[in-house]
Structures are given as structure tokens and as C-alpha cells.
Amino acid sequence: MEKLLLLSCCAPCSCGVIEKLARQGRTFTVLFYNPNIDTESEYQKRLAENKRVCARFGVPFAQLPYEPEVWQNAVKGLEAEPERGKRCSVCFGLRLARAARYAKENGFTVFSSVLGISRHKDLAQVNEQALQAAQKEGIPYDLTNWRKGGTEQVKTVLMRDMQIYNQTYCGCPYSHRTKNNS
Ligand code: SF4
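That is the input. Now the predicted structure with iron/sulfur cluster docked in place:
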């Protein structure tokens, strides 16, 4: 039986997908692993909002420790890269590899993520990193394009109805420059 692990960056990016998977009766868990977020307070805010969405749909929620030093070490030397550049590849790769490992260690049959759902992101860049992580850990990655299938419309409704916190930058200290949503 399929058991899916969905890596999430935040409530705005994941809420439409969570609603859809829950409505379809899929067996899945949301994983929050985001060492890229620049401050503890911002991290806690996004974490709480993502938990709130999962609780609303009765979806299991898992989290890994906040370890910004791991992320900072990984992107050292790439601070000046633009969004969608090399720093983002490393950032995606780090989070997806950890999610793949968690999935393998905890009996999931497949993993996926919403890291590429925002139109500010390069979905092909996320998928490339995801497939590398999948190969390394020996667990398949579900390449579903979550931008499709009505998730955006559901997101709009949930953001309004649940008054979900909507951040104005991707997450890392260097993404403040572009002020993009994640
Ligand atoms: S802009 Fe976003 S994806 Fe890129 S490195 Fe920063 S947090 Fe990661």
C-alpha cells in the first residue's frame, strides 16, 4: 500500500495539496524540514501554520529539528547567487535528501514535495534535486506537478478562510532582496 511523505516548506505552498490528498483519501504525512528559514521566530510561525492546516484535515504532521547551521554550511560561498541559482539547488538538495532519508527510515513507500509549487520557483530545478535524493536513498519520488489540478484555487479559499500567515520572502536571509513568496 502506498504511504506518501510530503515535504512542505510552509502552509501557503502546501495547503491546497494537503486538502486535495486528504479529499482523495490518500495515506500521507506532511514533513516540515526547513533549516533555510532565517530566524527562529519566522521558523516557529511557519511551523505553527503548517501544523494548523494539517490538524484541520486530520493529516499526520512530522517535523525535524531546526538546524540553520547545517544549511549555512551547505550554502557557504553561494550567498550572492540569485534566486533560482546555485544556492537554491543546494538548498533544495539538502532538504529533499533529508526528507528521502526520513521516508526510508520510517516506512514510507514514496516521497514528494511542494518546494516547486510557487511560480517564483523553477520546478525543473526542484525535480532534478529530488530525483538525485531519491536515487541516493533508494526511494521513489512522486513527480506530480502540484501546481495543476485545482490546488491554487483551493489555496486561495483556505488562505482567506483560515487567515493563514503568508510570508513575503522565500525563507533564507538572502531571499529578502527579492521579496518573493516561497
Ligand atoms: S531563496 Fe529559497 S530556495 Fe533559494 S536558497 Fe533561499 S530559501 Fe532556499
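Strands lie at 4-8, 28-32, 61-63, 110-113.
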